[in-house]
Inverse folding.
């Protein structure tokens, strides 16, 4: 069986094809915003391995409240922060994780959660669209994203484009703000310590499943020993 194409190769192909059809002015805004984030992101504020995680609560779109202690009950938890249900790159990344990450994490006893600031009644769409086999949850008020230092705000050109399209991002997400999380993967062990953190200011670059699996395997192997 041929090896699966990497997630980031898949995202790069998507962007290359979209660039052929997207109006030049909109493409420039998209590219400039991502470049600005890469150049200006405060990496010193990003969540990192070794951080202790204080209790938090997410809201799963079907289950309801999910406190950290419940998520850690059976093993480590893997948080995948994404932007919102209609984000094109997120609609590539989450199904990819469903296919190449979710089952292995379940086998290892870890819990996978996709996390977005979008309100549950709107966020549910991405879970249903792709029949995702893992939890999808709202980070109300973007509180956890803010604590992890992974938020960004639309630049002026992106705000203008969003408003001119009739759907300002704050209305799309239901948060009323211009803030979204940068794509981020965080692995937390049962002691409440971050064991792996990967933050990407460019939303077309995402954490590969293998990097997450290796960390979880290490955690579970040590726990078993």
């Amino acid at each position: 069986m041929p090896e699966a194409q990497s997630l980031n190769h898949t995202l790069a192909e998507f962007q290359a094809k979209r660039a052929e059809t997207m109006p030049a002015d909109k493409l420039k805004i998209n590219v400039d915003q991502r470049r600005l984030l890469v150049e200006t992101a405060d990496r010193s504020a990003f969540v990192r391995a070794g951080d202790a995680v204080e209790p938090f609560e997410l809201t799963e779109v079907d289950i309801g409240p999910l406190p950290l202690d419940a998520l850690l009950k059976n093993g480590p938890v893997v948080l995948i922060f994404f932007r919102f249900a209609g984000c094109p790159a997120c609609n590539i990344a989450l199904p990819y994780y469903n296919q190449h990450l979710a089952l292995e994490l379940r086998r290892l006893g870890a819990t996978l959660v996709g996390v977005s600031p979008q309100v549950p009644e709107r966020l549910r769409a991405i879970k249903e669209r792709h029949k995702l086999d893992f939890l999808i949850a709202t980070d109300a008020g973007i509180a956890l994203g803010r604590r992890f230092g992974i938020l960004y705000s639309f630049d002026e050109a992106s705000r203008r484009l969003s408003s001119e399209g009739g759907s300002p991002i704050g209305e799309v997400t239901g948060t009323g703000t211009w803030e979204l999380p940068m794509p981020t993967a965080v692995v937390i062990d049962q002691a409440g310590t971050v064991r792996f953190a990967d933050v990407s200011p460019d939303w077309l670059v995402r954490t590969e499943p293998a990097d997450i699996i290796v960390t979880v395997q290490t955690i579970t192997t040590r726990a078993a020993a």
DSSP finds ten helices and nine strands in the chain. Residues 53 and 192 are 5 Å apart (CA to CA).
